[in-house]
Design brief:
This protein is α+β, with helices and mostly antiparallel strands. The chain has two domains: about 120 residues, Creatinase/prolidase N-terminal domain (Creatine Amidinohydrolase, Chain A, domain 1); about 240 residues, Creatinase/methionine aminopeptidase superfamily (Creatine Amidinohydrolase). It has eight helices and 18 strands. A six-stranded mixed β-sheet has the order 4-3-2-1-5-6, covered by helices on one side. Strands 8, 9, 11, 12 and 18 form a five-stranded mixed β-sheet that branches. A hairpin with a 4-residue loop joins strand 16 and strand 17. Helix 5 packs across helix 6. The N and C termini lie far apart (about 60 Å).
């Protein structure tokens, strides 16, 4: 690449503001461009009535008023650069990165430039975490693992006494998380029986299902410590009230086998010093489930990037919903969470992994057996 071209109009590209450290609340009514060449000084192009918009950034400034002047100045800005990265994704393969509108890409191409995706560059800035951020992830992991263990015990106790339901356990978990100083986006998810087949189910007072003997239960829980730059911890475990039927046990074994196949693929690549991409991790999990003859019931990607947001903007473990060919970079954190979903229940097993330059590790407890509740 000869350079990275940032472009925005009316805050269409939040990645540009985060990566460049710009004020995300600034009043932006005119197009601006910022070009970071592989070699040399950055260059700015701004409208004259918003001429100060990029003053916080280094580089020389050019201004425009008319569209003709904009195009001429943009051509001058890109002189000497042929291959240019933008927040663009070929065929919209990575929607989280494909934020530049088609017309802006056409404009740059009409200037004789080849536009390529900035996806791996974005991952470098968005998904590579600092040591301090990783420490916040492990702080959340310790708290959430303990809360989840206690939640299973609480379900069993309530069933033996007065009974319970999905929403009541959500409230119990939420209160425990607040006591530990955790914050989170919506959720958590406690789902029973057919509700567990909806991977984005969240119980309400109106929809809450009782949890009784003979029920399958899934808990998906995520949160982070309440401090700036903190990173999420996000896991899913499952259990059965009483003795689980063979069908559910077999499904659990297939799901956890797929999870472990994906973990092994990441560890093998990192230990060998080989770059691994998101779609390859999905292939490992999906291939395992395909061999068990259940792939049509695995209806979502294998995992997602994790950062300050529970669904981060780094590489996802995906070759189903998208073909994610972004590299998993050293310093990246992500989930692995294959699942199988049927009309009467759904099983998902979710862990988090962190990759350094030399090793890949699962950051919390790993469920190896379907929990018996009660």
């Amino acid at each position: 690449m000869d350079g990275w071209l940032f472009y925005d109009h009316h805050h269409r590209d939040p990645l540009a503001y985060r990566i460049l450290g710009l004020d995300a609340s600034a009043h932006v009514t005119r197009r601006w461009f910022y070009f970071v060449p592989a070699v040399g000084e950055p260059r700015k192009l701004v409208h004259r009535i918003e001429a100060m918009r990029l003053d916080s950034l280094p580089g020389v400034r050019a201004e425009y008023s008319s569209w003709q002047e904009l195009e001429a100045q943009l051509q001058a800005m890109l002189t000497g650069a042929d291959t240019i990265a933008m927040q663009y994704s070929m065929r919209n393969a990575i929607p989280a990165v494909g934020l530049v509108d088609a017309g802006a890409v056409e404009l740059v191409r009409d200037l004789g430039k080849q536009v390529v995706s900035s996806a791996d560059l974005v991952s470098q800035f968005e998904a590579v975490l600092t040591e301090a951020q990783i420490a916040t992830h492990f702080a959340a992991q310790q708290k959430i693992d303990q809360i989840l263990e206690a939640a299973w015990s609480e379900i069993g106790t309530r069933i033996r006494r007065t009974g319970t339901d999905e929403f009541s356990i959500v409230q119990w978990i939420s209160e425990a998380m607040r006591r530990e100083g955790l914050v989170w986006e919506h959720g958590p998810n406690v789902s029973c029986g057919p509700n567990s087949a909806d991977s984005h189910y969240e119980p309400t007072v109106a929809s809450s299902k009782p949890i009784r003997t003979g029920d399958f239960v899934l808990i998906d829980i995520w949160g982070k410590v309440n401090r700036p730059d903190a990173c999420y911890y996000d896991i899913t475990w499952t259990g059965f009230v009483g003795e689980a039927p063979d069908r559910i046990r077999t499904t659990f074994e297939t799901v956890t086998g797929a999870r472990d196949a994906a973990i092994a693929a990441v560890k093998s690549a990192v230990s060998a010093g080989r770059a691994i991409r998101g779609f390859e991790v999905d292939d490992a999990a999906r291939g395992y489930i395909h061999s068990a003859g259940q792939v049509e019931h695995f209806v979502h990607r294998t995992g997602h990037s994790i950062g300050e947001e529970v669904h981060g903007t780094g590489a996802n473990m995906d070759n189903l919903e998208t073909h994610d060919d972004r590299r998993i970079l050293p310093g990246a954190l992500f989930s692995i969470e294959p699942g199988l979903y049927y009309s009467d229940y759904g099983i998902r097993s979710e862990i988090n992994m962190f990759v350094s330059a030399t090793e890949a590790v699962v950051t919390g407890e790993v469920q190896t057996e379907l929990l018996r509740i009660g």
